[in-house]
């Protein structure tokens, strides 16, 4: 059996832990640069605020009825670690799927004790972190995700739902679940399934696995087996190394200064390189893009991108930044006020298995010194905090740093932002 433990409205819940005054109020968390709503409390949903809604489209009258906060990722990341640490006390098999979701292996547990186990986990996480969770229990990951969905939508279950493979209740749930809402089914795949007259999760379960594989993919065939209660998807299938890595941000204000774009590209390139090394890959090319603000109709509109091929696969921040800067120089247009830019690393290959070239310069001692330098840089930043060592320093009034006008304190990771309590 597998459990999926999912935190409820995780970002909002983290904020409420340190500000109980937010309980019962409509609360939303905004994306980077306070652009759009990325997390909503139940109260905010009832006001009709949709996920992804741009903050500037919320009317002043509606805004007075809610609290909008900037993203506080340092706080959310630390709270996520605390939740997973508690889950680790209940099972040695923990697979963190996202910042607010983890799969938990339950091999060896008594079947009659599973629901009680789920309630114990929920109580312990709530007691020790203040984060409410729901628990889905099932023999496969896909069914566990579905069970968690049911647990969230039916309060009478107390936050815990178990779906056995062949139970009548499981059939009722899958018959009512549109196939596009099923974990692992993308919108385009759902449209293609509809052409095969498959509209619900139950209909997909009843489909011929081999026919599904021929028509779609081996991944879709695995979904069929998972819906039937036969484990076919390992977490590695879900978290396989990405084929591209992108880092981009909207600016806090528009800028036409090339130097500011260069600084932003340098920062984004360095961040992308960190992610690249973390997953053990190297990039063969770098894509750079810039764009103006499409919502400012009175402004000159411009968007462009440039791909720069590398001499050979690389994960060296210096080489990636240099390529990105060449791409920026090729597409920068004077007289435009830019709203966003970004760096994407393309054609990723395994760092340990990529094809070497006899003609490629930089092998040997120079390459080894570069690898040692990057490893040292990553180690220092991991041990002493992000950006302890970085490439260049942003200007004091640069346009590109994140705008976080409504961010709460990073209570658990910054000594100077610890919560102050008055005792009378």
TrEMBL record:
Coiled coil: none annotated. InterPro entries: DNA/RNA_pol_sf, DNA_pol_Y-fam_little_finger, DNA_polymerase-Y, DUF4113, Rev_trsase/Diguanyl_cyclase, UmuC. PROSITE patterns: UMUC. It comes from the Bacteria. Residues 2-186 form the UmuC domain. Belongs to the DNA polymerase type-Y family. Signal peptide: none annotated. Keywords: DNA damage, DNA repair, SOS mutagenesis, SOS response. This is DNA polymerase V subunit UmuC.
């Amino acid at each position: 059996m597998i459990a999926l433990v999912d935190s409820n409205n995780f970002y909002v819940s983290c904020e409420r832990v340190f500000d109980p005054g937010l309980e019962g109020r409509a609360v939303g968390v905004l994306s980077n640069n306070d652009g759009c709503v990325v997390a909503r409390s139940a109260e905010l949903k009832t006001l009709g605020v949709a996920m992804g809604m741009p903050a500037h489209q919320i009317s002043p009258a509606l805004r007075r009825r809610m609290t909008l906060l900037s993203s506080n990722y340092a706080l959310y990341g630390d709270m996520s670690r605390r939740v997973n640490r508690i889950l680790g006390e209940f099972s040695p098999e923990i697979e963190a799927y996202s910042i607010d979701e983890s799969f938990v292996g339950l091999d060896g547990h008594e079947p009659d004790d599973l629901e009680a186990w789920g309630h114990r986990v929920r109580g312990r996480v709530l007691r020790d972190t203040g984060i409410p969770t729901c628990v889905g229990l099932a023999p496969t990951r896909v069914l566990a995700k579905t069970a968690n969905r049911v647990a969230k939508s039916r309060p009478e279950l107390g936050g815990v739902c178990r779906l056995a493979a062949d139970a009548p209740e499981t059939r009722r749930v899958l018959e009512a679940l549109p196939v596009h809402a099923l974990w692992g089914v993308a919108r385009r795949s759902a449209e293609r399934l509809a052409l095969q007259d498959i509209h619900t999760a139950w209909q997909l379960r009843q489909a011929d696995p081999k026919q599904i594989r021929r028509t779609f993919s081996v991944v879709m065939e695995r979904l069929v087996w998972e819906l039937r209660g036969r484990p076919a998807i390992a977490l590695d299938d879900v978290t396989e190394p990405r084929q591209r890595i992108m880092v981009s941000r909207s600016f806090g204000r528009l800028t036409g200064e090339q130097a500011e774009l260069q600084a932003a590209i340098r920062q984004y390139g360095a961040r992308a390189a960190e992610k690249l090394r973390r997953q053990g890959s190297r990039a063969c090319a770098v894509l750079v893009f810039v764009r103006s603000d499409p919502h400012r109709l009175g402004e000159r509109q411009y968007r462009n991108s440039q791909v720069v091929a590398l001499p050979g696969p690389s994960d060296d921040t210096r080489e990636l930044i240099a390529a990105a800067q060449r791409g920026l120089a090729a597409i920068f247009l004077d007289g435009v006020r830019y709203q966003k830019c970004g760096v994407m690393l393309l054609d990723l290959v395994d760092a340990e298995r990529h094809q070497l070239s006899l003609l490629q310069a930089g092998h040997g001692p120079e390459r080894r010194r570069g690898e040692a330098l990057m490893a040292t840089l990553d180690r220092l930043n991991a041990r002493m905090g992000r950006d302890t060592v970085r490439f260049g320093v942003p200007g004091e009034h640069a346009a590109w740093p994140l705008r976080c006008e409504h961010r709460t304190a990073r209570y658990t990771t910054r000594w100077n932002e610890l919560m102050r309590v008055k005792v009378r």
